[in-house]
Amino acid sequence: MSQTESPQRKVIHVDMDAFYASVEQRDNPSLRGRPVAVGGSKARGVVAAASYEARTFGVKSAMPSVTASRRCPDLVFVSPRFDVYQAVSRQIRAIFADYTDLIEPLSLDEAYLDVTQDIRELGSARAIAEEIRARIKADTGLTASAGVSYNKFIAKLASDQNKPDGLCVIPPHKGAAFVASLPVRRFHGVGPVTAARMERLGILTGADLRAQSIDMLRANFRSSAEYLFNAARGVDNRPVRVNRASKSVGAERTFDRDYSDREDLVAQLDRVADAAWVRIDRHRVRGRTVTLKMRYSDFHTITRARSFSAPVADKAAFLAAGIGLLETQLPVDSGIRLLGLTLSGISDEDEIEAVDQPALPL
Known about the structure:
Helix 10 crosses helix 11 (225-231) and helix 12 (262-283) runs antiparallel to helix 13 (315-327). The chain has helices spanning 19-27, 52-55, 65-71, 82-96, 125-140, 152-159, 175-181, 192-200, 206-210, 214-221, 225-231, 262-283, 315-327, and strands at residues 11-16, 36-38, 49-50, 76-78, 103-107, 110-114, 144-149, 167-169, 248-259, 285-296, 301-307, 336-349. The longest helix is centred in the last third of the chain and has 22 residues, at 262-283. Among the domains are: 19-80, MutS, DNA mismatch repair protein, domain I, CATH 3.40.1170; 173-231, 5' to 3' exonuclease, C-terminal subdomain (DNA polymerase, domain 1, Orthogonal Bundle), CATH 1.10.150; 248-349, Dna Ligase, domain 1, CATH 3.30.1490. The protein contains 13 helices and twelve strands. The active site is at 110. GO terms for molecular function: damaged DNA binding; DNA-directed DNA polymerase activity; magnesium ion binding. Belongs to the DNA polymerase type-Y family.
């Protein structure tokens, strides 16, 4: 690679498997293995999410509950708990942040990661995706599917290829052929209306789409023409766009066993603070609010926060604030299985320096 040539982009698309329904099945063992719909009821409303057991009956999100009940008479409806889904999503994003600062969340349950720079020196984007999926399973009890490729378009297609709990890697030399083999209705940005119009024009696969001229696509699909023309050839130059709306940096860890002794909890919190402060330093930020997260053995989770008049000066002050919050909750009646420590109220957020590293293979 020449001095001026950029390294080949490496993108991972992580998509949680039946996220809302899987969280409900995790937290309520009686729901495991049963068809579950989050949202709605047998009589009214719509399905927000469906477990894989429900999907085998044709139940899917946005389906009227009455229709879902008719397709699956044993369907169990569960009220959504968005505060829990958001908390789990934050936990997952904290894992992502251990591997890259270039994270583009699409929703609570999916995100793009640009891992062109191998900051953990794992050797490949595949290895990074495998480790992220393993950590998500270990820390949350949930499964995630991932697609690894050289752009966002193909990475997203790949993440859906081996669901659930799957991994699919599409290297650059296989991108165009992979796209050509897929039905166009699977393309991101091709909704039911566009797919129906394509079908009328005889465009059923990526190969069919690639056979069309740009003029034909402009005449029929207008503003989407160039996107479709490039997508059919496996081309997508969109960068992973970092969402900077969240101004907090931290870390959390799920333990191999539960802890209740103060000495053990402080030792574990020290490890969490170390991991968090590495990330805080990497972002070159300082903040005034420290938040402690505690999850008990029964999965009950609480947060406690303290704000200061001046930014937290260093890791020692950060840890001291965390220990102070921890001590307000001692003694604990049941064991603690997770601790998290976050710095927010960010006073300054500089751009992250580019790191000169070799290109990371898929």
